[in-house]
């Protein structure tokens, strides 16, 4: 074993700052970034200096994408999905964000002693359906059982590989001033669906998660030879965090317009009540697409066409997906205005004034009043 | 969305801004009381719409910000006890005590839960009879009725494993303290709409008269705030000092009398410490003697040690509107949402956090 010259045994995150892991370290905000930047990256490195949802590798001349993600959602079942479909779609989407065609997944189950067999069976079936819909195969797996009280029912890890069949570099580094920024639907459904199921919040209507695979849409855009510069699915931390990450990595200013960002009435209402900002609420079937300015209109057209077809299929299959797709319209939400020495995201507010949107430190906490 | 989008109309906002500019002939300093209003002002960029003559300063109406460190330490100590389920509103969890915050207690194994209503905490007490459930009752007059209802129900139902760490505070005494300060700059107030929904606004009338300040009961949407400012400036320009009600769709002069009755049933008016400001007489609500068995401070014997506040944090001056967040030397350097020196940087309603999130990085 060789030890790098600068190998250091002391913890790179000053221990007096955070001697223990907090939930916020996994929340997709600043603390998680600190963990990645200061501990994981310096220790593990990246294979080609690019940080993205999936790593892109070349194996025997074939460009591949490789990624992994773990799922710890509570409750295991929520309107519009469950931990199983989420574990498939999430990993499929991470591969898609690298512009890859997802092919194979692995699944690791960490099960808690006492979990009803019926629950596991429901999740497994749901994973199979989701895999079929996303055109991937689950080909290998692992099962571990932990003592009662140590596992929250079930945790799932999935890893995935896909092939990259084009020569574009789809990563923040490719983002340029002038690029258009598009969004494929309304914000916040997954976060609010899970929160209301978890906290037992009763709203007048049920909000279903937007959990869905995004690979078909991405492959369609690639097939139409759209000059895609960057893709990012909006998961924890929502649109605001995704745009901030890209702005920072690409060192650009991204300007978006709040009036162009769709939020359905149910989600907006829930956010108003809880004091949450939908820009930071989690999604599981939404992405932002950065494209060359000359391709903006064409991209929008393809995204809307795709949506129509998707809606028709899901209308027949599953009612909840249809519900989550209603009223959602792909839209242009802004553009990249300039290269800067640092990354900035500005938002034109509903009354027309500009402000910054920042990364949150941890998860959003509902306000007192 | 109905009842929201109408109040965020860009054209109407521009028209109001123009109208404010037209009637303004000299500099005026107006304080919005409530942290929710501060948040709206900075989030929507309302301050940038106003003429230079109008200065908005941000008042002490953020319950998270004014809760004293001693009490947070007490909360931390109780939450760390075995067999205690400690319940709090979400944004109280991150507020720093002298050593720890409630999220750290949770990370260390304490049973700390976020609830949306004190009644949810009461339900937890019913479903966990072998554990002690404690609710951290913070907030202004807005949240007091729900706390009072939880205590009232607990008493009615004879629930013995439920108690409260109470830190409710009242708006009018804070306004009087600000107005009576020799450093006061405030010439007019936007009173907090939701506080007045509960309490009405009769208690503001003597304040307006005594100190000769206009007070406009104001809502939280951009157009509410702009209209509130317009009315306030109009009064200032005309030399009037009255209480006006901009938020009439929610507030009546008498307020919600049933809620007030409940507050009076459960709480008595007590002196209260305000973080960064000090003790203000008659400025808080404490449990009445008849309900003292629900007082967590009595139930749990936790030591209160004298507190060292960060010497750098000027939250007291911020909360009284004497300084603005960027005027603090530690702002955005040694004090950030990740490492807050004081509560206004933590709460989403806190003036420092609002400035940090929406303005600072833009320089």
**What order do the strands of the largest sheet of chain A run in, or round the barrel if closed?**
9-11-8-12-10-13-14
| Radius of gyration of CA atoms of chain B, rounded to a whole number | 21 Å
Identify the most extensive interface between protein chains. Answer: A-B, 38 and 51 residues
- Architecture (CATH level 2) name of the largest domain in chain B: 3-Layer(aba) Sandwich
Number of structural units classed as domains of chain B = 2
Distance separating the two termini of chain B: 33 Å
Mean pLDDT of chain B: 91
Shape of chain A: globular
Q: What's the CATH C level of the largest domain in chain A?
A: Alpha Beta
Work out the helicity level of chain B.
25-40%
What would CATH call the class of the largest domain in chain B?
Alpha Beta
Short description:
The complex is a heterodimer of chains A (369) and B (363). With 369 residues, chain A is an alpha+beta fold. Chain A has nine helices and 14 strands.
Task: Annotate the secondary structure layout.
The complex is a heterodimer of chains A (369) and B (363).
Chain A: H1 30-44, E1 55-59, E2 62-71, E3 77-78, E4 81-82, H2 83-96, E5 101-112, H3 117-133, E6 137-146, E7 154-163, E8 180-183, H4 189-199, H5 215-223, E9 228-233, H6 238-250, E10 252-257, H7 265-274, E11 287-291, H8 296-317, H9 319-325, E12 331-339, E13 344-348, E14 354-356
Helix pairs in contact in A: 2-3, 2-5, 8-9
Chain B: H1 10-23, E1 28-34, H2 35-44, H3 46-49, E2 54-61, H4 63-66, H5 69-79, E3 84-88, H6 102-107, E4 111-114, H7 118-127, E5 132-139, H8 144-156, E6 162-169, H9 171-180, E7 188-192, H10 193-199, H11 205-211, E8 215-218, H12 222-238, E9 243-245, H13 257-266, E10 267-274, E11 278-287, H14 296-299, H15 315-319, H16 351-358
Helix pairs in contact in B: 1-12, 2-16, 7-8, 8-13
